[in-house]
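Quick board copy: two proteins, each given as sequence then tokens.
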Amino acid sequence: MSSPDGTRPRAPAAEPPCMVPGCGALSERSLALAEARKVFPALPEGRRAHLCRAHYKEWKKGTKKERELQRLGW
């Protein structure tokens, strides 16, 4: 069955696992790989970094000052 715009509806994708080595939890957030590598330099190649809740929180804490300065710039 097609949607009104003529494209096929996408099946809900299963959440990929967290990309941090040694973690196998389900990911809750994804962000640009370059951003994630600021805190987790050992991430594998790709475009997006899928992070579980705990590692996303760690990334937020690790980049907090940088993100604050970026917001103040404009």
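And the next:
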Amino acid sequence: MWALIKKDLAIWVRSPAVMAVTLLPPLALLLVLALQAVAVTSYPVAIVNEDPRGAAAATLVRTAEAYNGFRTQLLSPADAQAAYANLQVAAILTIPPGFSADLAAGRRPSLTWAVRNFNADSTDDLRRALPDVVTSFLATGAAGADPIGIAIREQDVHPHDAGLVAFEMVGMLAMLMLQAGLINAGLAAVKEWETGSVKELLISPVPALRLIAGKVVAGVVAADLAGVVVTGLTVAFGLLPTPTLTQGLIALAAMTLLASFGAGIGVALAAALRSGDRMNPVAINASFYLFFLSGGVVALAYLPAWLRAVARVIPNTYAVSALRQTLLYGSTAGTGTDMLWLAVAAAVGLVVGVPALRRGLAH
């Protein structure tokens, strides 16, 4: 068994194509989502301040510039209209003349918020942005007594906020582990049929169960190596906080269990397909579908009820939950339940994969 593990790992290390098939799909999807996240938080907005000497107007400009939902440009009315017409800005915030004086006198000046409707999502984001800016402006006291008295109470579920890229990065990590388990264990088994070495394995005095165990363990170890490297790079580049030893071990255990599930399914697919050309697309597509169905992009609670019901039977769901708690939020709350379900999933994967490969070797 150990000889098979070392052989398969050596082949994996010397196979750039297998590494590329394992790593590139989730990393490419992460890049797409990262670029989307940058675009969503970087809408260009023009600010036209027609009350340049007013203190309250200056405070409102600074508040808008500090808002993290868009980037701002302070323009003249003519330049702002030209940029708006040429699709260079998505919205124009106009602060009218006498804005500060009107507030000081108790009058209610009107802000103009011109928004271009590129699509419903971007337009709604910008529509919601102005009330946020105005609420933050009123909280500075620059407008005098708050005429509305808005009190925002936030009930935090997690100890700190997480950026969109980091939030999605953890989902990508779970996708990577499942895909790595599927591909590495599956291709290691497929290669025996493609090269004809399966005959030598079958006439050897080694029990079939040990042969299968070698394939599965090698796939899990290769997946863990890929997961540890990617996690280490995300921590090094500041995308994720540095976990404690306990959090790191729980995350590694979650990755290992998910990879074990993937390896079990991978050897079952290998026994059925017996070709790398058929194995790779099946494994990649399966990991993509499971990623999206398990709340990889959005929080599970915001999915439709029927999709939440589907997600409850997908191992990725519990891996994503455990990894987000440990790597993203620095907590271990609820990870016990996640680990239990992942252990069940790993057992199911092996129960499916081992007999399938055993029958495949026998035939």
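Board note added afterward: The chain has two domains: 2-36+162-362, 43-139.
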